[in-house]
Design brief:
148 residues, 2 domains, two-stranded antiparallel sheet
Amino acid sequence: MYTLEVNDYKPIQTRCIQLSKPVNFNDFFHILAISDDTFRLCNPCYVSNTLISLININIPQDKKRVFETNEDSLYLKYEIEQLRQDSLQKEEIKKENEIKTINYTVKSGDYLGRIADKLNVSVANIKKWNNLKNDRINIGQRLIIYKK
C-alpha cells in the first residue's frame, strides 16, 4: 500500500578540536573548504557567525590537519577584523564629538536670539564665545559659533 524509501545515512567522521581564540565562521569555512551545512550537521548547536574561544567543535576528520596548519592565520584574521572595527567605531565617535566652527556674519534684522535659534545654540554661549558684554550686535559683524 505505502512504500517507504530509506536512504542510507552515513554519518560524517569527525574530530573534536578546541579553539583557543575566537574565529569568524566565513573564514573558518573558507580555510577548511567546508560548507555551512556540513559544519552545522557536525555542530547543530552553533547559530552565531562567530565561534568563540575555548569551545569544542567538531570538524570532518579529513579537515583536522588543514585546521592545525591554518589555525594561527584564522586567529590573526579575526583579530585584524576586530581592530579594524574598533578603529572605525573610534573614528565615528570622534566625528560625533568633533566641534565645527561657524563664522556667522550679522545681517539686517538679526539679533542674538534669532541667530541662536537658527544655529541651535544659546545666546549666553554666543556672548561668551565672542566676548560680548551685552546683546547689541551690528550689521556686518562677524560672530564665531561652535557646534558639534
